[in-house]
Amino acid sequence: MGSLDLPHVSSFKGGSEIFLRNVFENILKTYLRKNPTAKTIWELVQSVDNEKICYDHFTFRTLKVDGYGIDSLSSFFMDYGYKIGGGLDFPKKKLRVLWFSPPDAQAPNDGHGLANGPLPRLVIAEVLVDELSLESQGIIRKYLKPLGGKQAVLSSTLGSLIWEKPTWADFTHLAKESEFAAWTLIHGYTMNHLAFAVHRFKHRFNDIKYVKEYLEEKGFKLNSDGGILKVSQDGLLIQISSISERLAVEFANGVTEIIPASYIEFTQRLALPQFKDMPSDEIKEYHRREAFELDSANHVMESTRFAAQF
């Protein structure tokens, strides 16, 4: 019997599971409060067939400088049993991504949401600030003071910047070189997007093609970069994402401009070939395709593409 056919040994550790789930709940509440379109989609999914939702992953963006990078968020979650699952590098974007697998918390078979469902994977990206131009580095370092990254998780739950808001001039200058860095400088540790676990839905939404058609019929704009359905090379990982809505954001000195905020994603993980003939109600997460796909992730990131005027 292969190792993938066995359930994982419980890996939850450190402190209260209830506390960890409450942290996620507050991160989610902040994300939904700041992103009305994402909230509308989130509510619509649950309104169809009284669907119960589970999450595939929560994604964040960081800046690798002065302790504000991946570690500023991951250290907290690793204390609770999260483990590095893998990494992706995007040289053209000057970006590094790590994803983290959750601890095996005790979730009932019909558990859902963050209260008693399976914990989400974490995906944390960091801009490689030292690879940007000296001018862009100077802009970022002007706002990010040493040791501030220790408050990353608190910042994510509150939806407040640790640093001062950038000026519109600094933001637009940075966006010309790195839209990713500019987005992070103004939005901070607010969750960049969540992904529903399509394969855990019980009704019509358990087919990602239906999800696509439903969202298009409702008039939501979907990310078409690389195709609306982003399929891994092995065909076992399929993703779609919305286009980030554009919201009014106040910059320093009272300047208000319209910029991209966060978005929402749907992820379907199919059973690995050796488990494809198992009854569907017996397939667990560890029977399914794990990890992420470089090309698909690169396309999904374009959901926050900025306007050409930058």
Automatic annotation (TrEMBL):
Q: What does this protein need as cofactor? A: Fe(2+)
GO MF annotations in UniProt: dioxygenase activity
EC number of this enzyme: 1.13.11.93
Q: Which UniProt keywords apply?
A: Dioxygenase, Iron, Oxidoreductase
Q: Give yes or no: UniProt keyword Iron.
A: yes
Q: Which InterPro entries match?
A: HGLS
Q: Which family does it belong to?
A: Belongs to the 2-oxoadipate dioxygenase/decarboxylase family.
Q: Which PANTHER family match?
A: 2-OXOADIPATE DIOXYGENASE_DECARBOXYLASE, DUF1338 DOMAIN-CONTAINING PROTEIN
Q: What is this protein called?
A: 2-oxoadipate dioxygenase/decarboxylase
Q: Which species is this UniProt entry from?
A: Brassica campestris
Specify the taxonomic lineage: Eukaryota, Viridiplantae, Streptophyta, Embryophyta, Tracheophyta
